[in-house]
Amino acid sequence: MTEAPIGRSVRANGLDLHYLDWAGAAGTPAILLHGFALNCHSWDEVAPGLRSRLRPLAFDQRGHGLSDRAERIEDYTRENMVVDLECVIRELGLERPVVIGHSMGGMNALDFAARHPEQVRALVLVDVGPEVSVDGAREVGAFVAGPYQLDSLDEWVEHTHRYYPWRSKERIRARLAVSLRETPDGKLAKQYDERFRDGFGGIARSSADPLEASRALRSPTLLVHGGASPVLTREMAERFAAAVDCVELVSIPGASHSVAGDRPEEFVKVVGAFLDSVLGSRA
């Protein structure tokens, strides 16, 4: 049986940020950053498989999961989230961690790695790049703008399965069981700042051009593309990899935008191979 992670928190940039410490046999720390409107449990299916190579630390970013909400909606910016990451690394005394980020978390990771290449041992970007599909982003936004609370876990499973039909209801149930909160009237609600529902993109983009930022990358970088993703097309992924020398592209067939949850075994395999090439067979 896989040992359960330990829930911890760290003070960073004026907020308490919650994270799951998956421990593991390896000494190399890894910071795992989820996508918009998700939480640290985005990595539950893959963190156990990475523990032989890394010490995964899966964070709830500001406004998500069990982490503090920002006082103002205007404080949800990529710049602030990058500073959050800087503070986490300093406060926890992490030496050149691997940074793994999905979607919004991937853009935060990309910006951080471009600004601080000396602090990142390796970077894994999950279905995100300097450009994303407008239609795909709208599809994600429509899901976020949908129900914020429902009467039961069964209702949430059915609702989510309509959006993620390629993922089994059993896996959806396991994820939702730890990703919802009970409201005072007994309903089950999402675990992110409700103000995000006023408009997808409540997380303000960086003022810097994303492609120019990506050209500053120096760390070995793996781009894991979901073969069926509506957010990052294959052509977009290939353009990114062609434009930046340190980026290696791997596409996982049958995975949509949430690659780690859709195809966890394949995800661990490709990320593990990349880590072995960067860290050696023993991290």
Question: Outline of this structure?
Answer:
The chain has 283 residues and is an alpha/beta fold. Helix content is 34%, strand content 19%. The strands form two sheets. Strands 1-2-4-3-5-6-10-11 form an eight-stranded mixed sheet, with helices on both faces. A three-stranded antiparallel sheet has the order 7-9-8.
Mean pLDDT: 91
Fraction of residues in H or I helices = 25-40%
* Helix and strand pattern: EEEHEHEHEHEHHEEHEHEHH
For the largest beta-sheet, the strand count, sense and barrel status come to: 8 strands, mixed
Ranges with pLDDT <50 over ≥5 residues?
none
Number of strands: 11
Radius of gyration: 17 Å
Tell me, briefly, the overall form: globular
What does this structure look like?
The chain is an alpha/beta fold and 283 residues long. Helices cover 34% and strands 19% of the residues. The chain is built from ten helices and eleven strands. It has helices at 47-50, 78-92, 104-115, 134-144, 153-163, 169-177, 210-214, 234-243, 259-262, 264-279; strands at 6-12, 15-21, 29-33, 55-59, 98-102, 122-126, 149-150, 180-182, 188-190, 221-226, 247-252. The strands form two sheets. The protein has an eight-stranded mixed sheet, sandwiched between helices. Strand 10, helix 8 and strand 11 (247-252) form a beta-alpha-beta unit. Helix 2 packs across helix 3 (104-115) and helix 5 packs across helix 6. The protein is globular.
